[in-house]
Design a protein that fits this description.
The chain is mainly α and 265 residues long. It contains nine helices and no strands. Helices cover 72% and strands 0% of the residues.
Length: 265
């Protein structure tokens, strides 16, 4: 295992460990300690305190949980919906394919993050609404990818042979097409994690994500920007955490792409 993969898995493992520990560790992310406002560190919180005297370590843990739940909620909804739509469009073809592609073109005509901001603004802040808004934007990538893969595979000899032998459409899709498009979908899934993490942090930074007093890495960065010169740790703690997770996901995605690319094997 290369150093890049090991480092990526280590960082993502820490993220996952933080998420798993949240229900079992006694945290006080919303406790206000006026005597510790903007304090850098002490024995109770190694990462310091924010502008209300709340421990940043506890809020970082809760923010990791929030980011994880929203990210994987969006990814799984988008993957499931996008793959179904893309496989159907690519396999059936004809007028249905043209209709679905026009819908995809409409979504692609708008920048994804702007569309997510508009949807989150219309539905209101909250974790569920963020998942819905980002899922509406994110399914398009999986639909386009799965459609392109299906259109390339459905004319191969083994698919034509299965059709000639009387296999049903469901059997052809499940046995002869889906197994061949899993690899590119896994790669897209991996890179999609980084995109959603950034998008969730951006929505929270704008006040459209989870609301106070709940913690999110994006809202923590927003709160810290007002005290950047006096207490830079308020921005550095969630900012570095966000950067490391995104960097680890992208490095893992690059490694998986190189590993699953048949041209490199």
């Amino acid at each position: 295992m290369s150093m890049k993969i090991s480092l990526s898995l280590f960082i993502l493992g820490l993220w996952g460990l933080m998420v798993l520990l949240v229900p079992f560790v006694e945290l006080h992310p919303n406790d206000i300690l006026l005597e510790k406002i903007l304090l850098t560190t002490d024995e109770s919180s190694l990462l310091g305190y924010d502008d209300l005297g709340r421990p940043l370590f506890d809020r970082l843990m809760i923010g990791a949980y929030t980011s994880f739940v929203i990210t994987f909620g969006v990814i799984f909804v988008s993957l499931f919906a996008g793959t179904i739509i893309g496989v159907f469009s690519g396999y059936v073809g004809g007028h249905w394919d043209h209709f679905i592609m026009r819908i995809i073109d409409v979504f692609l005509a708008f920048p994804g993050i702007l569309l997510a901001i508009a949807l989150a603004g219309l539905m209101g802040p909250g974790m569920t609404n963020v998942i819905i808004a980002l899922s509406v934007v994110s399914w398009v990538a999986y639909a386009r990818l799965s459609r392109a893969q299906v259109m390339a595979i459905k004319q191969r000899e083994h698919v034509l042979a299965a059709r000639a032998l009387g296999a049903s459409h469901g059997q052809i899709i499940m046995r002869h097409i889906l197994p061949l498009i899993i690899a590119p979908l896994i790669i897209e899934f991996t890179f999609g994690i980084a995109s959603v993490v950034i998008a969730e942090a951006g929505l929270s930074f704008l006040g459209l994500g989870v609301q106070a007093p709940e913690a999110s890495w994006g809202s923590m960065i927003r709160d810290g920007t007002q005290y950047l010169l006096m207490a830079p740790h308020m921005v550095l703690v969630p900012g570095i955490s966000l950067m490391l997770v995104i960097l680890a996901v992208n490095m893992l995605g690059d490694a998986m792409r190189d590993k699953l690319d048949v041209k490199n094997n």
